[in-house]
């Protein structure tokens, strides 16, 4: 699940891919399964190729998606996020942040699969080549191209502490309802994307410019006085939950660059919020 989610960006798609891999395993007769010397490797290879196929068709489906498509945010305590290796925990958590998943979305399917397998989960290029059906040279090149895209994102990235400070200031300004105060936190060319998936109301097109973004978000808050803004954690970053009497109705992520908010991403689609309904979402203080 952990690998499939980072390749595909939603829990439902990841679950479907994992289920299909196991179905293919059990469709083989017992004799063929016994000839497989490394069942776990066979399953990972099969899963990787399923994800490649899904990513290829996903681009076509998203052309008919209602409004902007955003990846699914995950609570910090989701089993999809966790890692038993403390040395890997930070990079593993970062790889499910909304900002990182959006970077992954900009990769080709082959780049994404190679990058996730090698750079996130530390598979060798020999293993990546076998899993993707490519040569080791091609696998290395694909991962390197994906890595350059990630490095471009990281050049503008701020520290976790600075990101958290800006998120808290954003929440305070939003709760105060002052457009000018909120604008001071937004970059002049800030952009807001909201994903309702055609299921719930959301902006169907990106909103550009600090004033437009501030006015839009405060307008949402005025129309929904029952919504409370609560801090939580997702992908090693602080996020803002939009909570009403029915639970978490939205997750707001901020892309912070050099102290100001360059991107506002709001996930409203209830099909991408199911992991928040049963999670303990109260924010935990960061250890210093």
UniProtKB/TrEMBL annotation:
<dbReference type="InterPro" id="IPR052704">
    <property type="entry name" value="ECF_Sigma-70_Domain"/>
</dbReference>
<dbReference type="GO" id="GO:0006352">
    <property type="term" value="P:DNA-templated transcription initiation"/>
</dbReference>
<dbReference type="InterPro" id="IPR036388">
    <property type="entry name" value="WH-like_DNA-bd_sf"/>
</dbReference>
<dbReference type="Pfam" id="PF04542">
    <property type="entry name" value="Sigma70_r2"/>
</dbReference>
<dbReference type="GO" id="GO:0016987">
    <property type="term" value="F:sigma factor activity"/>
</dbReference>
<dbReference type="InterPro" id="IPR032710">
    <property type="entry name" value="NTF2-like_dom_sf"/>
</dbReference>
<dbReference type="Pfam" id="PF08281">
    <property type="entry name" value="Sigma70_r4_2"/>
</dbReference>
<protein>
    <submittedName>
        <fullName>RNA polymerase sigma factor SigJ</fullName>
    </submittedName>
</protein>
<keyword id="KW-0804">Transcription</keyword>
<dbReference type="InterPro" id="IPR007627">
    <property type="entry name" value="RNA_pol_sigma70_r2"/>
</dbReference>
<dbReference type="GO" id="GO:0003677">
    <property type="term" value="F:DNA binding"/>
</dbReference>
<feature type="domain" description="RNA polymerase sigma factor 70 region 4 type 2">
    <location>
        <begin position="104"/>
        <end position="149"/>
    </location>
</feature>
<comment type="subunit">
    <text>Interacts transiently with the RNA polymerase catalytic core formed by RpoA, RpoB, RpoC and RpoZ (2 alpha, 1 beta, 1 beta' and 1 omega subunit) to form the RNA polymerase holoenzyme that can initiate transcription.</text>
</comment>
<dbReference type="InterPro" id="IPR013325">
    <property type="entry name" value="RNA_pol_sigma_r2"/>
</dbReference>
<feature type="domain" description="RNA polymerase sigma-70 region 2">
    <location>
        <begin position="2"/>
        <end position="57"/>
    </location>
</feature>
<keyword id="KW-0805">Transcription regulation</keyword>
<dbReference type="InterPro" id="IPR013324">
    <property type="entry name" value="RNA_pol_sigma_r3/r4-like"/>
</dbReference>
<comment type="similarity">
    <text>Belongs to the sigma-70 factor family. ECF subfamily.</text>
</comment>
<keyword id="KW-0731">Sigma factor</keyword>
<dbReference type="InterPro" id="IPR013249">
    <property type="entry name" value="RNA_pol_sigma70_r4_t2"/>
</dbReference>
């Amino acid at each position: 699940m952990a690998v499939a989610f980072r390749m595909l960006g939603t829990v439902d798609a990841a679950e479907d891919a994992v289920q299909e891999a196991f179905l293919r395993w059990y469709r083989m007769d017992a004799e063929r399964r016994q000839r497989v010397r490394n069942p776990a490797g066979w399953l990972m290879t099969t899963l990787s190729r399923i994800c490649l196929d899904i990513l290829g068709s996903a681009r076509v489906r998203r052309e008919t998606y209602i409004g902007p498509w955003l990846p699914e945010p995950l609570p910090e305590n989701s089993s999809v996020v966790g890692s038993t290796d403390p040395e890997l925990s930070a990079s593993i958590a970062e790889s499910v942040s909304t900002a990182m998943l959006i970077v992954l979305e900009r990769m080709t399917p082959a780049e994404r699969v190679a990058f996730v397998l090698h750079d996130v989960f530390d598979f060798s290029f020999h293993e990546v080549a076998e899993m993707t059906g490519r040569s080791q040279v091609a696998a290395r090149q694909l991962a390197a191209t994906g890595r350059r895209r990630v490095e471009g994102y990281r050049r503008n990235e701020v520290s976790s502490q600075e990101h958290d400070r800006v998120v808290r200031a954003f929440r305070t300004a939003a709760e105060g309802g002052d457009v000018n105060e909120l604008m001071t936190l937004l970059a002049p060319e800030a952009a807001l994307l909201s994903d309702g998936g055609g299921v719930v109301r959301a902006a169907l097109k990106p909103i550009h410019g600090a004033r437009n973004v501030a006015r839009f978000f405060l307008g949402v808050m005025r129309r929904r006085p029952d919504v409370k803004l609560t801090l939580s954690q997702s992908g090693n970053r602080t996020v803002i939950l939009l909570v009403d009497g029915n639970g978490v109705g939205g997750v707001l992520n901020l892309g912070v660059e050099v102290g100001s908010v360059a991107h506002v991403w709001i996930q409203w689609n209830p099909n991408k919020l199911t992991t928040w309904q049963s999670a303990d979402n109260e924010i935990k203080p960061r250890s210093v």
